[in-house]
Write a structure and sequence with these properties.
By secondary structure, this protein is of the alpha/beta class. Helices cover about 45% and strands about 15% of the residues. It folds into 2 domains: about 170 residues, 3-Layer(aba) Sandwich (Rossmann fold); about 170 residues, Rossmann fold (3-Layer(aba) Sandwich). The two termini are about 20 Å apart. It comes from Sutcliffiella tianshenii. This is Polysaccharide pyruvyl transferase WcaK-like protein.
Length: about 375
């Protein structure tokens, strides 16, 4: 049996929930399709993978050395918002193109995000040159596709973010049992019937945004019997600092998880909740994967969040003004049978598209080098 070696490139060296899930999902899906011998992770800086200290993430400067040792069958880029040219950190990820050319290794984009447009003539030429070397190019939403089209790139596949199928990596009942275990040891509140709430400090763009969020939480507590669990997801964005401030306004029924959880434990808090509200794209995607009602606090108008809610046909659940959160919460939490059927149908469609995507990658790898 042929065994395959794959290098995967992304921001796997930062404490950020979605970024840390991408290689886990990729390995889970690819190992169903081909026999993997080596799956090496690369990031700009490298080091032990956060919360998985037995997994080493190599710096991009080691890529060529590892290519000569493992003779990779493919270089996979993504996922994440990593097709960008705004910092040296992200520019280092572009080394994949050069190494793919030099060693005739297929370079594959795995549902990447494109947060900013390529407006300058030099930037457009650079991204065109990069994409011309790709064997397979996939982005995770239409917004990313449109930015690349504007830059002159062609043959772009739009594939849903693979974390939509997180329920295949972690079963919902397994996560719910894990949440109970965490409650017994005091790592999370030992409660049920709660809203999982996450937010990063960068969302407050208007003078009254923070006060409106606090008032919204108060009103929801007054009108429901639900509790609120404050959950840090984007550790690298200082979620915990903001959540500690929110907690200080609520002596009762609002519980703070005052520590950093690993990816599986974060998923367990979301999957066990009645509702998720948050700024995190992958917090919302996790809720969607497990059939948990959710709202995105997209006060900062982040393209990737709009793109996901367009994809799942739930644009109204992507909130751009804090004052709209309360009304939309009560509208969303009361699900109708038709809405549930629509969710199941759309979720199934997206899961099938992701399956086709991973089948395509497996086929490219099996066919061999260019």
């Amino acid at each position: 049996m042929k065994l395959y070696n794959i290098a995967q490139i992304g921001t796997f060296d930062v404490e950020n929930y979605g970024d840390l899930l991408f290689p886990n999902m990729f390995y889970n899906e690819m190992s169903k399709r081909i026999a993997l011998r080596e799956h090496t992770l690369f990031s700009p800086i490298g080091g032990a993978k956060p919360f998985e200290t037995n997994v080493e993430v190599f710096p991009m400067s080691d890529l060529e050395k590892k290519i000569n040792f493992f003779h990779y069958d493919a270089i996979v880029v993504g996922g994440g918002d990593i097709i960008r040219n705004d910092t040296e950190y992200f520019r280092s990820l572009w080394l994949a193109k050069e190494m793919g050319q030099r060693y005739r290794i297929p370079v594959i984009w795995n549902c990447v995000g494109v947060p900013f447009s390529f407006n300058g003539s030099e930037d457009r030429k650079n991204i065109q040159d990069y994409c011309n070397q790709l064997v397979y190019l996939s982005v995770r939403d239409m917004n990313a596709q449109n930015k690349l089209i504007h830059a002159g790139v062609k043959n772009i596949n739009v594939v849903p973010d693979s974390i939509i199928n997180l329920n295949r990596l972690y079963r919902k009942d397994t996560l719910q049992k894990r949440f109970l275990e965490l409650g017994r040891i005091g790592a999370v509140p030992a409660i049920k019937d709660y809203i999982a709430l996450q937010a990063s400090p960068g969302i407050f763009h208007r003078e009254n945004d923070y006060e409106e969020l606090i008032n919204t939480i108060k009103n929801i507590l007054e009108k429901t019997r639900l509790n609120v669990v404050l959950l840090s997801i984007c550790h690298c964005h200082n979620d915990l600092l903001l959540l500690q401030k929110i907690k200080s306004s609520f002596p009762e029924r609002v519980f703070l998880i005052n520590q950093k959880l690993n990816t599986k434990d974060i998923a367990s808090v979301i999957a066990s909740s009645r509702f998720f509200i948050g700024t995190s794209l992958h917090g919302n995607i996790t809720a969607y994967s497990y059939g948990v009602k959710h709202l995105a606090l997209n006060i900062a108008n982040i393209s990737k969040i709009d793109g996901f809610f367009d994809l799942i046909h739930q644009q109204e659940a992507c909130i751009h003004k804090m004052k709209d959160v309360e009304n939309m919460f009560f509208k969303q939490i009361i699900a109708t049978e038709d809405e549930d059927k629509h969710y199941e149908k759309r979720k199934s469609q997206l899961a099938q598209q992701i399956d086709i995507h991973f089948n395509n990658i497996a086929n490219i790898i099996v066919k061999g080098k260019k």
